[in-house]
Design brief:
The protein has 603 residues and is α+β, with helices and mostly antiparallel strands. Helix content is 39%, strand content 23%. A hairpin with a 2-residue loop joins strand 12 (255-259) and strand 13.
Length: 603
């Protein structure tokens, strides 16, 4: 068959297949164009899940009639002022998505610049253009997309239900609103306004504007359970809110990542976030975060994905290190900060239980009847028999002269130990509530952090192999490992090149004992090939340290005196991540006095 050139309409539809996957893709492209046009207010309307209508109205710079004509041409754009595909400082290319949208739907653009006497309108229906023609509107641009995919009806079968498409549109607008707090947004889905936020004023600082927008879009709970972070390394900066480790989710849907103002869903960044939480997060759970990464556009390639959902960094190790260290610093710097959600969950369990007078069950009524039957002379005896604590349940009351006055001191967030219950839980009084501590979980974290500090300070003890272990690798993998010999040696793994395509392992970390050396080295080589770095060996060392800490900590069932309990509280206050044990479970729960009073109807 002879080679032929495809018609422009077919070319545009092929391009649309890469960029326009669903209605949410259209919304993303149009809203990004509005942001790039300098809009301070963007209104989005969606009907029929986006199939029937998508309208995006902005107050940006607008377009003259000539620009409007070019905007629907392929490979025409108002962006890339220097024509440099490496130096991308905008979210998209105005001429990239519009012709693709116009090739599969009915596209109407009405726009007016500050230099025009009137607005202009152009219509593109399944690739057929009409206009521009005079129209009426103020400065800015309105883009309407109707009958989406009517030119390619087969695509309609791949769309999900209307509620699912509406949810995808909502997620796109929310993410863009998070990334640009200076812009006001509104989203109307059908007859319901689902989002309305005003742009941050010029007098509000960046951090405050970011936190306010997070609260406006994701709710006050997100902000209340978030830990602020602001870290820089090698010209890259990481800001935002990291969710408290005890406030976690079943999947990564609540993980919001942004690179230079662009929402992304990048696997390498997700992996860095998980590594940043490490052992502070319960296994199998995901944090809720809103993290904003800013770096030189030359250091990031946003063109590796048609929809720009994924990115590639020139120095992936630098970015990963910034995220991991930034999160660990933020989580460690808070001390034993309780999760607002954890306290609320605890109170909900109290509220959800039966009232105290009913929870005793039939036996309580039986005792009551027995008292009534015996007359007024014996109730005290019966009550004493019913209510007296058993030997195992009796609280150990703290008698400690060093207990701080929690009403006067603000230096003790975990307060003063007042009792030990069931030789497992420490009850402490704070200035405005109580704290209940799981002594084993808390001490497990303390021992674990001491072991990690010892590893960082004194290095990892090594064991020399009687016969070096030779590992055959791809020559490129062997070379990458050889470049990392110094870093690996700091973690106790000493290796050296052994001819082309092989390395010889001479020493291994003593903590690992007898293990599969070749398997570990190959895994390290795979990690370095993919991400430029590997934390696999460090993760294994920390896992061993965690197990050692678990077996070396104070066990449940051990009775502690007042000084021991208060010493545990003070060390928790000075230890990073002490709010979670090595497995990510909470080590303590805090209840405010006001909440306790509400439980008893005192407020």
């Amino acid at each position: 068959m002879a080679v032929r050139r495809l018609p422009d309409t077919i070319v545009d539809r092929i391009a649309a297949g890469e960029v326009i996957e669903r209605p949410a893709s259209v919304v993303k492209e149009l809203v990004e164009n509005a942001i790039d046009a300098g809009a301070m207010r963007i209104d989005v309307v969606v009907e029929g899940g986006g199939r029937r209508l998508i309208r995006v109205d902005d107050d940006g710079a607008g377009m003259a009639p000539g620009d409007l004509t070019l905007a629907v041409e392929r490979h025409a754009t108002s962006k890339l002022p220097e024509g440099d595909l490496v130096d991308i400082r905008t979210l998209g290319f105005r001429g990239e998505a519009l012709p693709s949208i116009g090739s599969v739907a009915r596209l109407t653009i009405t726009s007016r610049s500050a230099f025009d006497d009137h607005a202009s309108r152009i219509v593109v229906d399944a690739g057929v253009r009409e206009g521009p023609m005079p129209a009426a509107r103020s400065q800015g641009t309105r883009v309407e997309v109707s009958e989406l995919f009517h030119a390619t009806p087969a695509r309609l079968r791949f769309l999900k239900s209307e509620p699912a498409e509406n949810q995808a549109v909502t997620d796109v607008v929310r993410r863009l609103a998070l990334a640009h707090p200076e812009v006001g947004f509104s989203l109307t889905v059908g007859e319901r306004n689902t989002l309305s936020v005003a742009g941050a004023g010029a007098m509000i600082g960046e951090a405050q504007a970011q936190a306010d927008r997070i609260a406006d879009v994701l709710g006050d709970e997100f902000r209340d359970n978030g830990i602020p972070l602001d870290n820089e390394r090698g010209g890259a900066r990481l800001t935002g809110l990291a969710g408290h480790p005890n406030w976690h989710r079943a999947n990564a849907r609540h993980l919001y990542l942004f690179v230079n103002g662009r929402p992304v869903k990048d696997r390498s960044l997700l992996g860095a976030v998980r590594a940043g939480y490490g052992d502070a997060m319960t296994h199998g759970r995901w944090p809720a975060c809103a993290l904003f990464l800013t770096l030189d556009p030359h250091e990031v390639d946003v063109n590796v994905h048609p929809a720009k959902a994924e990115v590639r960094f020139r120095d992936a190790g630098l970015v990963r290190g910034l995220i991991v260290s930034g999160l660990r610093t933020a989580l460690a710097g808070t001390g034993p900060k309780p999760s607002a959600a954890m306290a609320e969950a605890t109170l909900s369990r109290f509220r959800g239980g039966a009232p105290a007078y009913a929870s005793a069950g039939p036996s309580a009524y039986a005792v009551s009847n027995a008292v009534a039957a015996r007359g007024f002379s014996e109730p005290a005896v019966v009550f004493e028999a019913f209510a007296a604590p058993s030997a195992d349940a009796r609280a150990t009351i703290v008698q400690d002269e060093t207990v701080p006055d929690v009403h006067l001191s603000q230096d003790f967030p975990l307060g003063a130990a007042r009792a030990q219950l069931h030789e497992t839980f420490i009850v402490a009084q704070t200035g405005d509530g109580i704290v209940i501590v799981d002594q084993h979980a808390a001490h497990e974290r303390l021992v674990y952090e001491r072991l990690k500090t010892a590893i960082e300070t004194h290095g990892v003890a090594r064991q020399a192999l009687l016969i070096p272990e030779v590992v055959d690798l791809d020559p490129a993998d062997a070379e990458r490992l050889a470049d990392k010999t110094h870093e690996l040696a700091e973690l106790g793994l000493v290796l050296e090149p052994f001819g082309p395509g092989a390395v010889a392992v001479n020493e291994t970390p003593a903590m690992l004992g007898d293990f599969d050396v070749k398997g570990l080295v190959r895994d390290l080589a795979d990690d370095i090939a993919e991400a430029g770095t590997s934390t696999r060996l460090l993760d294994r060392l920390e896992a061993i340290a965690s197990t050692m800490a678990c077996h070396g900590s104070v066990r449940a069932g051990r009775r502690l005196n007042g000084q021991e309990m208060n010493a545990l509280l003070r060390e928790m206050e000075a230890t990073p991540n002490s709010g979670q044990c090595n497995h990510g479970r909470p080590t303590f729960v805090e209840l405010k006095l006001a909440d306790i009073e509400r439980l008893f109807g005192r407020r």
